[in-house]
Write a structure and sequence with these properties.
Length: 485
């Protein structure tokens, strides 16, 4: 049996030959209106092969894929935890996937209820009642919240406040979002404990400060002990506090940001609420704000009136930040996750995430240097010991060697405040056996490094792509597909 694309065949002039053809010369209806120079004049050189050969090809490719359903992802701050299949099944039901975003409100009451109730649940979990589900990712949520902040400042006559304070350990998206929103960024130092340096923070306060962006727990996996005082200081100077919610997985159900003074935050539903993550999307980064800021949220918002759900525009809305109503199928998965777990389950998720991170930290600390070796939250940061460094081993060597041992590397070289950082987050969905296996691999690599094993510099040696020159790849990227005849 030979496979060929359907409806794209014509008979070659040579007897018994069939060639794949794309519309071009005949200017068929499929090409109506397209510029002539964009039309293909020659047939595409598609290969012909048997069905079995094709199946084997794609099966082999799929077996090379590294996925959460086959292996462990200890990526710090990314919360690459398991996505329950029941959530996928619910999102795949035709009753949901067959909806159209332009349907009349009366015909999509179920979908509107999901969005309305999910927003309410997120507001309850964060202590911030104003919620929009529109942003498509965490960074998009950051930008949206900063636009809300600008709208609030302008209405208050505070359009001169254009400085945002950001800790030096922050995610790189924070300063990028500030710049896009028209703010100036001022960095705040970390102290010896890995927390925000309060003395340095005080030196930057003034009537030019619009607010502060802070990640809590921070990127070192530590809870900011002075978070309530930080919020009070920013409020006293006339600004607002935005919390990067990338690490909310560690405190949800335990601490509500709104209760310790946060005014705005985003949530990564593709992390915290266990929806698909990776490959650039689809993601979801809803923002939650105080009652005072609710009127500036993007349009439309779902409201319930007389038992019916409808869409409306908030009073002083900043407008649309994306088409339609957000990534609805991601929202549906998050809704299923929250409703199935409930308040008690959500808290247990956070508790187990913290437990797993501390278990792993203690398992490896005798072989790796842990700069802040104390109770952490969902993740911790380690680095090669001095003995390993003296042997010429760097974090990149460690990451590549872990790939040979069957593990996806942790986040490397971040946060920038730790030299040669290795940031690991086991999440709550991994078993003790999995954590023990990963710890053993980390310990094995440490011993190999101290022993001066040269093969560490050549790792990975058993992967489809071996060691590459990352510096050269960054400077001279090859982004153009090259067809091999």
């Amino acid at each position: 049996m030979r496979l060929t694309p359907v409806n794209l065949l014509f008979e070659d002039s040579r007897p018994g030959r069939r060639t794949v053809r794309t519309p071009g010369a005949d200017r068929s209806l499929a090409t109506a209106g397209l510029p002539r120079e964009e039309l293909r004049e020659k047939p595409v050189a598609w290969p012909e092969m048997g069905e079995l050969d094709l199946v084997r090809h794609f099966t082999r490719l799929s077996q090379r894929n590294y996925a959460i359903s086959t292996n462990f992802y200890p990526l710090g701050s990314c919360t690459m935890k398991y996505n329950p299949l029941v959530n996928e099944a619910i999102a795949g039901q035709g009753a949901w996937s067959g909806l159209h975003p332009l349907q009349d409100d009366s015909s999509v009451q179920g979908a509107l209820k999901v969005m309305h109730d999910l927003a309410a649940d997120l507001g309850e979990a964060t202590g911030l009642p104003g919620v929009t589900l529109h942003p498509a990712a965490g960074a998009h949520g950051e930008l949206t919240a900063l636009m809300v902040l600008r709208a609030w400042l302008d209405e208050q006559g505070e359009d001169k406040r254009r400085t945002i304070l950001i800790p030096d350990s922050a995610h790189g998206t924070n300063p990028a979002s500030c710049t896009l929103a028209g703010f100036k960024v001022v960095s705040v130092k970390s102290d010896d404990m890995g927390l925000t340096d309060m003395d340095d923070l005080r030196t930057h306060l003034g009537d030019h400060v619009a607010g502060m962006m802070i990640t809590n727990p921070n990127t070192l996996g530590l809870f900011e002990d002075n978070i309530a005082e930080i919020c009070e200081l920013i409020h006293q100077t006339g600004g607002k506090v935005y919390m990067d919610g990338a690490n909310f997985n560690a405190i949800m159900g335990i601490a509500r940001p709104g209760d310790f003074g946060i005014d705005m935050m985003h949530l990564n539903l593709h992390k915290t609420m266990s929806t698909p993550h990776g490959g650039g999307g689809p993601g979801s980064g809803p923002i939650c704000v105080t009652e005072e800021l609710t009127k500036y949220l993007p349009t439309p918002a779902v409201v319930k009136t007389n038992g019916k759900y409808r869409l409306r525009t908030p009073e002083a809305s900043i407008g649309r930040v994306r088409a339609f109503h957000g990534n609805f199928m991601v929202l549906l998965r998050a809704y299923s996750y929250v409703k199935r777990l409930g308040a008690i389950g959500i808290r247990r998720v956070a508790e187990n995430a913290v437990l797993n991170a501390n278990y792993l930290r203690v398992k490896v600390r005798d072989h790796w240097r842990v700069p802040h070796d104390r109770i952490c939250m969902h993740e911790f940061v380690a680095r090669p010991t001095m003995e390993m460094r003296e042997a010429g081993i760097h974090t990149m060597d460690v990451a590549k060697r872990l790939m040979e041992l069957g593990y996806h590397p942790p986040t490397v070289y971040f946060p920038l405040v730790i030299n040669e950082a290795i940031m690991a987050e086991p999440t709550e969905t991994e078993s003790r056996e999995t954590l023990d296996g990963f710890a053993e691999a980390m310990i094995q690599v440490a011993k190999e490094a101290i022993a001066g094993e040269e093969f560490l510099h050549a790792a990975p040696r058993n992967m489809p792509v071996t060691r590459v020159d990352e510096a050269k790849a960054v400077k001279n990227p090859n982004l153009r597909y090259q067809h091999e005849a």
